[in-house]
Amino acid sequence: MMALIKKAAKGAAGEAAETVKFLAGVAGVWAVIVTLLFAPFHIPSESMQPSLEVGDRVLVSKWSYGYSRHSLPLGMGYLFPENWNARLFARNPARGDIVVFRSPESRKNIIKRVIGLPGDVVTLRDGRLYINGELVQRDYVETLRYRAHEGPVVEVAVYEEHLPGAAEPHLIFERGDDYRWDNSGPYVVPEGYVFLMGDNRDSSTDSRVAQPMGPGYVRLSEVVGRAQTVIFTLKRCRREEGLHCPSGRVWRGL
Fold first, then answer.
1. Is 9 within a domain?
2. What predicted TM-score, i.e. pTM, was given to this entire model?
3. pLDDT digits (tens, 9 = 90+) for 41-64
């Protein structure tokens, strides 16, 4: 009987060891994927509407701009010294890219669009965007109303914005041309940094706001990767007459 018990215990211990090895292998594969290849991120706010909605799950490519300490998952990059800003296989984002970066203030991931590159001068006058002294073209599309995440109904003008050098235009929301930061700048983007803005221009705290209230200029080593596609969304808006409610948010490219 004792022999049988010992044999059973030995078998159970062997199975447990195999299970631990399997789980360690899975964790290792996951760590490699989310560090070097892809990682999912969720959208918590309306600052990137209409490109991204609250609840969207976005797939971000980690290799797009190279790797820094913030490429590591679960905030492990903060285990390194704060002045460790090296990047491997470094490449700068292109103007118009949607990027995820790690906020040094909140230690959270934030997503915005690249507006200014190192050396650019970004200015806002009466709600209009200027880059290096040139007015950025925007074409009126429509006016719509939607229910904000917090509850109230918001009316916005939708424009198609054409950033210089961007691969293609994108849509932005404007509540008006006399809101916060609609007359601000000039912002001179330092070397090693980018200037980011949300597509929902009057509902975004971005590089127009200096630290600690906003991110200010974003260091390139804090950029985690490029948002490639909306995988799916976990939030559905309520259909209401006369209010905009986006749909079709599964495997939609950005």
1. no
2. 0.84
3. 888 889 999 999 888 999 999 888
47 is catalytic: yes
Concerning whether 112 is annotated as a catalytic residue, the answer is: yes
In the set 47, 51, 71, 203, the catalytic residue is 47
Task: State pLDDT tens for residues 152-182.
Answer: 899 999 999 999 999 899 999 999 999 989 9
Task: With respect to residue 60, please indicate whether it lies within any of the assigned structural domains.
Answer: yes
Q: Which residues contact 249 (CB under 8 A, 6 or more apart)?
A: 53, 56, 230, 232, 233
Classify residue 176: in a domain, yes or no: yes
**Catalytic, out of 112, 203, 204, 207:** 112
SS (H, E, C) 166-206: CCCCEEEEECCCCCCCCCEEEEECCCCEEEEECCEHHHCCC
Q: Residues 156, 141: contact at Cβ < 8 Å?
A: no
Determine how many CB atoms are found less than 10 A away from the CB of residue 168. 8
Provide the domain count of the chain.
1
Q: What is the CATH number of the domain that holds 214?
A: 2.10.109.10
